[in-house]
Amino acid sequence: MNSRPELTGACRLDDWGVIRARGADAATFLQGQLTNDVLGLDDAAARLAGFCSAKGRLQASFVVWRTQAEEFLLACSADLLAPTLKRMSMFVLRARCQLVDASAEVTLRGLAGATASEHLRDVAVWHRRDAGEAQVIRLPDGAGHPRAILAAPSSGDATSTAAPRLDVDVWRWLAVQSGIVTIEAATVDRFVPQMVNFERIGGVDFKKGCYPGQEVVARSQYRGTAKRRTFLFDCEAIPAAGQDVFATGAPQEAMGTVANAAPRPGESGGSALVELRLAALHQGELRLGAVDGPRLDRRELPYPLPAEPELAA
């Protein structure tokens, strides 16, 4: 086993992209498209939100914040930004809202540990502060380490930082440890929000009104019949998003899907957020990629899941 690297510093998030929504109707347009409340989003807050298909399946997930009265930034996985932007633009119609890819104009950096704390200055989770031309958004901690996104104009000094360099794989591992799934190209159209615990971590507002897939999401919530959830695992191999997961007691078909994964800092193997049938928790060992693949060892999420009989360990 190698020594674990320092879990503090800053790194460029080149695998993230940014959509800008601007215009007099930007707030109401986003309110009608995303799973979370946007109209109530003030200058000091940020939101986790999903963009769903008509069948309630997540096409993208965003960190959303307001930069001006009529402007919002939506940070998402870069590998699905273009198709998501194209799909969302289809719904603009006559709304006074312009959607553009702002990735070249806004640089995102991930901050972790003491570096994040220095920039946050006691900012609460899912809140933000201005730092000159930049904004600092606090995300939920990963493995007990503070995390934040620094969003700054790509032209200017705000993108530079004297912080220690953070390995991007460490940032990704901390994101996995936070228990918050980011939808990637490999997992588009795979999950209803409840399957990735979005309603447990503030990613869904059930009082905000209609959006694509809202009826499916609401039905899943109020019937209380969720049969799939996302759990945290360690593995002797390094999982990849989109990989199937099998249970040794039910080898005929896959029982789950890797949502996000990253190497473990300073150790062999990796950690993963795995969307899984609840029944699979009681059907033998869980294996990556095949019924005889590397074993997955369950770890504790940093937030509680519903106290359903199927979730009993």
Radius of gyration, taken over Cα atoms and rounded to an integer in Å: 19 Å
Number of strands: 16
Order of helices and strands: EEHEEEHEEHEEEHHEEEEEE
Q: What is the CATH first-level class name of the largest domain?
A: Alpha Beta
Give the strand line-up of the largest sheet: 11-14-13-12-15-16
Largest sheet: 6 strands, antiparallel, barrel
Structure, described:
With 313 residues, this protein is mostly beta strands. It has 2 domains: 9-177, Gyrase A, domain 2, CATH 3.30.1360; 227-300, Elongation Factor Tu (Ef-tu), domain 3, CATH 2.40.30. It has 5 helices and 16 strands. It has helices at 26-31, 81-89, 113-120, 168-177, 214-222; strands at 9-12, 16-22, 46-52, 58-68, 71-77, 98-101, 106-112, 128-131, 134-142, 145-153, 228-235, 244-247, 256-263, 270-277, 286-288, 295-299. It is globular and about 55 Å long. Mean pLDDT is 94; it is low at 309-313.
